[in-house]
């Protein structure tokens, strides 16, 4: 999909002595630009990524980046949104094939294990990395992370609640308490996966985590 970004420049009308604002059109594939920027931020982190890195990765000049995204932070916020959106899409595809709450929770954790196994460069999860690097440095990022956490825990809570109503999961804790537990376990799993990509050990870890539900 091609997005068009319109910037402005001025022509001068010598008859009226009034400058005329004219559009300057730049075309680029915004989705591809965001993916390229995502790769750079994921590799280097926010603080480790320079504007020149983004210029090289996106093939946009500095002026185009500033005009289209506002700032390095503005681009990073769109990158985070893009990354989270891709993750949601992948999760939806996995959950379509599940039949009950137990299958759904297992599918979510198995998806993260697969992400770890496919992460040959050991970059980890961009959102988890960003949380540890930037949450206490930038209010906009903190707000994004809080929103992301709320959305994920709400989804987990809904699944757990259904499992409890179907007598699949125990009710030793509330669905909300289990949701926060599972969310925290996912964060820890992704961090563990940066150093350990042994499938058998990761599967055993997941099984241990999920035992609390039964």
TrEMBL record:
Annotated DNA-binding residue span(s): 50-69
Keywords of this entry: DNA-binding, Transcription, Transcription regulation
Family matches, as Pfam families: TetR_C_13, TetR_N
Keyword Transcription set for record: yes
Segments passing through the bilayer: none
Annotated HTH tetR-type domain residues: 27-87
PANTHER family xrefs: TRANSCRIPTIONAL REGULATORY PROTEIN
Protein name: Transcriptional regulator, TetR family
């Amino acid at each position: 999909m091609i997005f068009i970004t319109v910037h402005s420049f001025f022509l001068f009308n010598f008859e009226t002595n009034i400058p005329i604002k004219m559009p300057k059109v730049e075309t680029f594939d915004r989705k591809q630009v965001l993916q390229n920027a995502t790769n750079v931020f994921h590799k280097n982190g926010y603080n480790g990524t320079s504007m020149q890195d983004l210029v090289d990765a996106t093939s946009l000049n500095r002026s185009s980046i500033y005009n289209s995204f506002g700032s390095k932070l503005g681009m990073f916020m769109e990158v985070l949104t893009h990354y989270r959106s891709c993750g949601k899409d992948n999760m939806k595809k996995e959950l379509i094939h599940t039949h009950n709450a137990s299958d759904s929770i297992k599918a979510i954790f198995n998806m993260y294990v697969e992400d770890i196994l496919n992460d040959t460069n050991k970059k980890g999860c961009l959102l988890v990395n960003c949380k540890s690097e930037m949450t206490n440095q930038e209010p906009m990022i903190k707000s994004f992370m809080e929103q992301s956490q709320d959305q994920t825990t709400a989804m987990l809570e809904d699944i757990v609640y259904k499992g409890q109503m179907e007598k699949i999961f125990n009710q030793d804790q509330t669905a909300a308490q289990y949701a926060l537990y599972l969310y925290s376990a996912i964060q820890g799993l992704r961090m563990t996966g940066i150093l350990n990509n042994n499938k058998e050990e990761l599967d055993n870890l997941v099984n241990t985590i999920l035992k609390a539900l039964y």
